[in-house]
Amino acid sequence: MPLTKAIIVPGNGAGDVERSNWYGWAKKQINKIPDMTCLLSNMPDPVTARESIWLPFIQEELQCDEETVIIGHSSGAAAAMRYAETHNVFGLILVGAYTSDLGDENERESGYFSRPWEWEQMRRNVGHIVQFGSTDDPFLPWEEQQAVAEGLGAVLHKYTDRGHFQNTQFPELIDAVRKLRAAA
């Protein structure tokens, strides 16, 4: 299957996603890649980011399929991973991914962390997995980011100075999309 679409699933609490972090900038850059479309939408239930609401939205509204790479940031990475447990997708690009509710009530309410991760099933359903993580992330312990990389066999881009990847541009992400497109 070719790679024809990217969807950006933001972290929770992002507000207007076009103007939050690198999301709007990345959408514009990906849309410049020939034969690629990038979708970015304000998510329903943007604060709690419930799995029961976000996963159907990814399927029905964003129409994620086998020609799609899901770019998930933070809570969006958790949503992307849970989606990939039950759906075939071209690829995942996970930014600031983690494995637990971090002791946070809001994260617990999201539903993503109520059961074990199905790493093997995700690997079967996804053709390409790339991950970006930073050891200085103020929200996510490196051990959890590393556990995601190991569980998925992801191509891990490890940084020491990116925090939670809340900058306004993210050129390495665009490079990763271009490489996936070329590999298709």
Question: Which strand order spans the largest sheet, edge to edge or round the barrel?
Answer: 2-1-3-4-5-6
Written as H for each helix and E for each strand, in order along the chain, the element string is: EHEHEHEHHEHEH
Please work out how many helical segments DSSP would assign: 7
Mean pLDDT: 97
The CATH superfamily title: Alpha/Beta hydrolase fold, catalytic domain
Radius of gyration: 15 Å
- SSE class: alpha/beta
Tell me how many strands there are: 6
The best one-word shape is: globular
Query: How helical, in percent, are the residues?
Result: 25-40%
Task: Explain the overall architecture.
The structure is a single chain. The chain is α/β, with parallel strands linked by helices and 184 residues long. It has one domain: Rossmann fold (3-Layer(aba) Sandwich). It is 37% helix and 20% strand. The protein has a six-stranded parallel sheet, with helices on both faces. The longest helix has 13 residues, at 171-183. It is globular and about 45 Å long. The mean pLDDT is 97.
Any key phrases for this structure?
184 residues; 6 strands; six-stranded parallel beta sheet; alpha/beta; Rossmann fold
List the helices and strands and how they pair.
Elements: E1 5-9, H1 23-31, E2 37-40, H2 51-60, E3 68-73, H3 75-86, E4 89-95, H4 105-110, H5 119-125, E5 126-134, H6 142-152, E6 155-159, H7 171-183
Parallel strand pairs: 1-2, 1-3, 3-4, 4-5, 5-6
Helix pairs in contact: 2-3, 3-5
Question: Quick summary of this structure?
Answer:
It comes from Salvelinus namaycush (Lake trout). The chain is α/β, with parallel strands linked by helices and 184 residues long.
